[in-house]
Amino acid sequence: MTPSFLFATGIENSNPTIQGGRVRVDELEKCGHYEKWSLDFDLVQALGIQVLRYGPPIHRTWLADGHYDWSFADVTFEDLRRRNIAPIADLCHFGVPDWIGNFQNPDFPARFATYARAFATRYPWVQLYTPVNEMFICAAFSALYGWWNEQLASDQAFVTALKHIVKANVLAMGAILEVRPDAIFIQSESSEYFHAENPKAIAAAEVMNSRRFLSLDLNYGRRVDSEMYEYLMDNGMTREEYHFFLSHRFKHNCIMGNDYYATNEHRVSADGSTRPAGEVFGYHVITRQYHDRYRLPVMHTETNRRQGPNGDEAVNWLWKEWANVLRVRNDGVPIVGFTWYSLTDQVDWDTALREENGRVFEVGLYDLDRKIRPVGEAYKQLIANWREVLPTHSVCLQVPVSMPSDYASRHDNQKQAQAAVASTDPSTAAANTASTGS
């Protein structure tokens, strides 16, 4: 049965490089997924979850331009299909193969689109995609803060990484749509806010609050404001590159994924430095800002919290985030899904993967021994309580998702044919996207 509201989790597949590119931080390996993938899928089903953010390890799969090793993806994606779990295919999660180098490489966008097309061709039953995860964060951590991959720290390096990352995402959407015309793209992007802590910090905070939108502005073909246009031009983007984003629009196939953690809000000092602010506005207020800007259906695509010394911190955070989701929904914003990220605990995210310490980050629905945490029990109960209520009492859209078992059915073929027509007629596409039926 097609879910009317997308309750999801994810299996963490970050894989950036650190230490000048010498060390690959492979979270699938650190968290034991390569050996325990079948058990992990059992755990997803045990929670009552039908949608999973999941992707193959890009550095092990994409061996060279046009050359792939699909062996691990074949067994895992075929098992997801057998279980009728709908993957949101997460194709690039903070890292690229060694032969690409890093996000400063201008060849990355076109080559990544070829990889995305190859994936979609091999697994045509997959409908949901996040081609490039958290584009803004990926560019900032790699090229503005100097933490990952190219480990640069300048505005010019940031703009270079950002334009290549977003262009890769845009080209990948186009390539996937050539194979699967009814593909739906869920942009998992960090939703940020910068608070000025005194009047002298207002100007810096305003710049940061404009810059946070750059990845989605470019991705959705929205004209940036004049200050950000100058920022892009001053730091290496050409007019031709800017107009590429204005002319390639796949917005009618998109759901805006908003990620929110307690670390997403920042205090800005007069000198332009920032420090964590904790939860000030919260998911509801910040998501309304993003929705007002882009007017797309919304999905809460990531959140978590450490279990903590009292053992109930993650459970309380889950309740708070769900209350925010309901507040967004009741305000009339079409919110279509919620995600606790990730299925299991993670490793070394306490230092944002900058250090190889092997420390467990206790944010999973299960621990790394695959024992359920209190937040896992709470999420399972939340799903059971709300699954039947939301379809009849929600103002959200019903996303036209085809489950793996639907692939190649008459109904699915008809939807793909309609989507192919819509891709050439934006007005038809908008009407189909806003449909409340499946």
Question: What does this protein look like?
Answer:
The protein is an alpha/beta fold and 438 residues long. It has one domain: Glycosidases (TIM Barrel), CATH 3.20.20. α2 packs parallel to α4 and α16 crosses α17. It is globular. The C terminus is likely disordered. One of its GO terms (biological process) is carbohydrate metabolic process.
What's the CATH architecture? Alpha-Beta Barrel
Which percent range describes the beta-strand content? 15-25%
Rg on CA atoms, Å: 20 Å
Number of strands: 17
Query: At the third CATH level, what is the topology name?
Result: TIM Barrel
Q: How many domains?
A: 1
Query: If strands are numbered along the chain, what order do they take across the biggest sheet?
Result: 1-4-7-8-9-11-14-15
Structural class of the helix and strand makeup?
alpha/beta
- Percentage of residues assigned to helices: 40-55%
What is the first-to-last residue Cα distance?
11 Å
Give the overall pLDDT as a whole number.
Answer: 93
Uncertain stretches? 426-438
CATH homologous superfamily, by name?
Glycosidases
Report the CATH C-level class: Alpha Beta
Number of helices: 17
**Describe the biggest sheet?**
8 strands, parallel, barrel
Q: Indicate the overall shape.
A: globular
What are the key terms here?
about 450 residues, alpha/beta, TIM Barrel, three-stranded mixed beta sheet, 17 helices, globular, disordered C terminus
Question: Summary?
Answer:
By secondary structure, this protein is of the alpha/beta class. The protein has helices at 27-30, 33-46, 58-61, 71-83, 108-122, 135-143, 155-179, 202-211, 214-219, 226-234, 239-247, 282-294, 313-330, 374-386, 390-393, 410-422, 426-433; strands at 6-10, 17-18, 23-24, 51-54, 62-64, 67-68, 86-92, 128-132, 184-190, 193-196, 254-259, 265-268, 274-276, 298-302, 335-341, 346-347, 360-361.
